[in-house]
Amino acid sequence: MSFFDRNRKDLLDKGYDPSRLPPGQYLTDRFPVLHVGDVPEYEPGEWNLTVTGLVDQPFTIDLDELKAMPSVTLTFDIHCVTKWSKFDTTWTGVRVRDLLERAGVQPSGTHVVEHAEFGYTTNLPLADITTDEAIVAYAFEGEDIDDIHGGPVRIVVPHLYFWKSAKWVRALEVTAADQAGFWERNGYHMYGDPFREQRHWGDSQRSLEVVRVR
Ligand SMILES: Nc1nc2c(c(=O)[nH]1)N[C@H]1C(S)=C(S)[C@@H](COP(=O)(O)O)O[C@H]1N2
Ligand SMILES: [Mo]
């Protein structure tokens, strides 16, 4: 039996609904750390977030202002394209939707680019970053997010592969086209649905559609 088959069997033995694990993934209890480049070091009060691009009122907020906004605490499964999935991770933060509403997205805005420290970017449709579950998170399991996991603030968009959830996020830019981010320029899928295994360019019809309109 392969590692993946054994892992699926363990999942059943533990009483999990196996449909929670996307194809080609294995379940882990660990919390792997994955990023390109360094972990930023912030002075207290240094971090802030800018909402910009095709919005009526661009603005920048600091951590205290973010924490003063209405927050949600939600539990998600997360799925990394390198094949690990982790179930029941709990995050606290502000819905991205609330921040974008405050800025006022213009009718021409269709996509968002998340900009993080050191030039990391990732792109997704506006509809995917304005769900009930897409948050700007500042706590993990009730504690400040560890710096290696994106603290003080990261994005969490649980229904897409985890590379779409920028750690150390610094700006959200509303755009009028789907602009490839860091990994998307380097072979990863423009959309990245784990349940359709959209890992790389050409993994599904959807990526071909994107290529055609660009
Ligand atoms: N700024 C930044 N965010 C990032 C990345 C990165 O390289 N830089 N990697 C992404 C990838 S590929 C994954 S799987 C997750 C990993 O998050 P974790 O280290 O908290 O598990 O962060 C995502 N967000
Ligand atoms: Mo990843």
CATH class label: Alpha Beta
Low-confidence stretches at least 5 residues in length (pLDDT < 50)? Answer: 205-214
Approximately how much beta-strand content do the residues carry? Answer: 25-35%
CATH superfamily: Oxidoreductase, molybdopterin-binding domain
Helix content: 10-25%
> And the CATH topology?
Sulfite Oxidase, Chain A, domain 2
CATH architecture, please? Alpha-Beta Complex
Q: How many H/I helical runs?
A: 6
Estimated radius of gyration: 17 Å
Order of helices and strands: HEEEHEEHEEHEEEEHH
Largest sheet: 6 strands, mixed
Q: List ligands, each type once.
A: the ligand Nc1nc2c(c(=O)[nH]1)N[C@H]1C(S)=C(S)[C@@H](COP(=O)(O)O)O[C@H]1N2, molybdenum atom
Structural class determined from secondary elements = alpha+beta
- Number of E-type strands: 11
What number of structural domains do the residues give?
A: 1
Q: Could you characterize the architecture of this molecule?
A:
The chain is of the alpha+beta class and 214 residues long. The protein has one domain: Sulfite Oxidase, Chain A, domain 2. It has six helices and eleven strands. The protein has helices at 3-13, 63-68, 96-103, 126-129, 182-185, 205-213; strands spanning 26-27, 48-53, 59-62, 72-79, 84-95, 111-116, 121-125, 135-140, 143-144, 154-156, 169-175. Strands 1, 4, 5, 8, 9 and 10 form a six-stranded mixed beta sheet that branches. Strands 3-2-11-6-7 form a five-stranded mixed beta sheet. The protein starts with a helix and ends with a helix. Ligand MTE is lined by residues 31-36, 80, 116-117, 120, 149-150, 162-163, 165-168. The site of molybdenum atom has 6 residues, from loops.
